[in-house]
Amino acid sequence: MCIIIVKQQSNVVPLGTLKNCARINRHGLGIVWLDTFEVKKYKSKDYKLLHTNRPFIAHFRLATVGKVNKENVHPFVCGKKQNELLMMNGTIYNLGNHKECDTKILARQLGNVPREMWRSKLSKIDCRFVSINTFTRTFQIYNKHLWTKRDGIWYSKDNVLQDELVAVYGTLKRGHHNHHLLASSTFVGRGVTAKKYPMIRRGVPFVGDVEGIGYNINVEVYKVSQGTLSALDNLENHPNWYERRKTEVHAGGRVYTCWLYFNDTISYKNQKLIHDYENIYSLYDEDDGLEYMGDLDEQELEEIKRIDNENKIK
């Protein structure tokens, strides 16, 4: 879905953030250098060019409409207005085709719209935009309420700003059905919790915040953005069902302080405790009936149904 970065000052975008931009949005990099207003187009893997104190507006593309080629790398000339350029983060459905991306066609249409009406037109579209005038050497950001500002730099999405560490032990792990929520996150490594906790499996796993009982839990550690963390909170119904708390994790010879989702509403007494979650049992059988779930009470069963139904919708 792309990302736009607007950097006007001499501060430098962290290299890790730029690497995330290229990893998530791998279909082309367009740059307008704001000290010269020169336009350049590259491959996403050339992201290190942006690790500089030069001011710029950059667009990393993730193709949703149109071919993956240099011709579809932003920015685009707005019709006959050769000095007016457009970048977009988002998708306009029913615009574009197998050859041309939606932004390229929108830019062509804007060329026939009076300049003073652009803001009104673009504010009605649920996307983020930047227009650039290479003659007057000016630019405008549109739908600013959808952007994130960090250290004086504007980002059209926050999924590249991965400041939080999360340790996952269940259906969010690789190969499991909720892992898609971590698709844009950075995998740090596999590890174990520094402390022992009780973990049981009742269709889905539950870990209790009771130190010294059970095992050092096998986890996967990810760097995530605030947006992804909010999505995980929603999945786990934090803080009403699972509750996110920090704990130390050993991974790759290092110690990380990570968020981990605990559930203290479940009884762990006299239960078989495990240290690793493998998706051995399906929550539903072929007839969509519940399989054996252990001794679940009504509240636990309803919450598991709710979580699974939400995942099906997603």
3D architecture notes:
The longest helix is centred in the last third of the chain and has 16 residues, at 298-313. Helices cover 16% and strands 32% of the residues. By secondary structure, the protein is α+β, with helices and mostly antiparallel strands. The chain has helices at residues 15-24, 102-110, 118-122, 226-236, 298-313; strands spanning 3-7, 29-33, 38-42, 56-60, 76-78, 81-89, 128-133, 138-142, 148-150, 153-155, 164-168, 186-197, 199-202, 204-207, 215-224, 243-251, 254-262. Mean pLDDT is 90; it is low at 279-297. A hairpin with a 4-residue loop joins β2 (29-33) and β3 (38-42). It folds into two domains: 3-155, Aminohydrolase, N-terminal nucleophile (Ntn) domain (Glutamine Phosphoribosylpyrophosphate, subunit 1, domain 1), CATH 3.60.20; 164-313, Hypothetical upf0131 protein ytfp, CATH 3.10.490.10. Strands 3-2-4-1-10-9 form a six-stranded antiparallel sheet, with no helix packed on it. A five-stranded antiparallel sheet has the order 11-15-12-16-17. A four-stranded antiparallel sheet has the order 5-6-7-8, covered by helices on one side.
Number of helices: 5
CATH homologous superfamily classification of the largest domain: Aminohydrolase, N-terminal nucleophile (Ntn) domain
Helical content, roughly? Answer: 10-25%
Average pLDDT score: 90
CATH A-level architecture of the largest domain: 4-Layer Sandwich
| CATH level 3 topology of the largest domain | Glutamine Phosphoribosylpyrophosphate, subunit 1, domain 1
Report the top-level CATH class of the largest domain. Answer: Alpha Beta
SS elements, strand count = 17
